[in-house]
Amino acid sequence: MVDYKKIGLVNTRAMFAKAVDGGYAIPAFNFNNMEQMQAIIMAAVETKSPVIMQVSRGARDYANQTLLRYMAEGAVEYAKELGCKHPEIVLHLDHGDSFETCKSCIDMGFSSVMIDGSSLPYDENVAVTKRVVEYAHQFDVTVEGELGVLAGVEDEVASEESHYTKPEEVIDFVTKTGVDSLAISIGTSHGAYKFTPEQCTVDPETGRLLPPPLAFDVLEAIEKKLPGFPIVLHGSSSVPQDAVDTINANGGNLKAAVGIPEEQLRKASKSAVCKINIDSDSRLAMTAAVRKHLAENPGHFDPRQYLKPARESMKQMYMHKIINVLGSNDKLIKQ
Ligand SMILES: [Zn+2]
Q: Which CATH superfamily hosts domain 4-326?
């Protein structure tokens, strides 16, 4: 049993309370490798932002759960070396699929877990979420639950269609389970292809696809039911078109990738939404930089030569999200 507090991690409780009060959102960035981890920490330190580093099932399969846990411990020390005296770093399990998965992460030092029972019948979702909360809270680990189904694909999480969260269920769910935060479905979606062209309209000026707007009416109805309760948005990459263009101009073939416009995320950040998950934008930033570098430097074969610009590009993207979209810069509790 590893106590996450002993390795310098924090849970989400205080940072979410401050974010809901302050009208901003904490970034939750997925990580799978060292360069992503470094870029996340460099961006968080430079902007003085709290940050959630999250680990999906795909990341655990790719990089090994134990190794990722030690990387998070290293991330705390790295942040201090970069000059942040009191880093606020959460190590979070993204889309925990069972009580056992959540327990194994809690036991090895994660400070926060998500139990995703959203595809289960309501009563089963309540039961498994409650069980995880009872276990996690013994160790002061915070728990995110989910109500409603997002469309799209994220590692092992896939769904054909979305179902918005039902505002009439949220009080019952939160009361019965004791969760610390709730992921809801209001039209965000996993992956880089969030919407089909048929769901979008065409911007007459740029010719680009414009996705349907998020269901802010559902979000407002949920906020009315649960005033001040921390709300989470998954699948909130914006799929920057310049990254898509760079990939396509350098041998890639990404067709009609569409994300959530940043102005909608900016609006959501000011509400009770206090955690916004961003994964695809980091993948796009990294791939665009690697493709461009290798196209321009066909003789390079040292991975450091192309991973260095990839890391820098991810760092710039993370800083942009923190400062210009979520507003979590300069929000550390202790400077
Ligand atoms: Zn998700």
A: Aldolase class I (3.20.20.70)
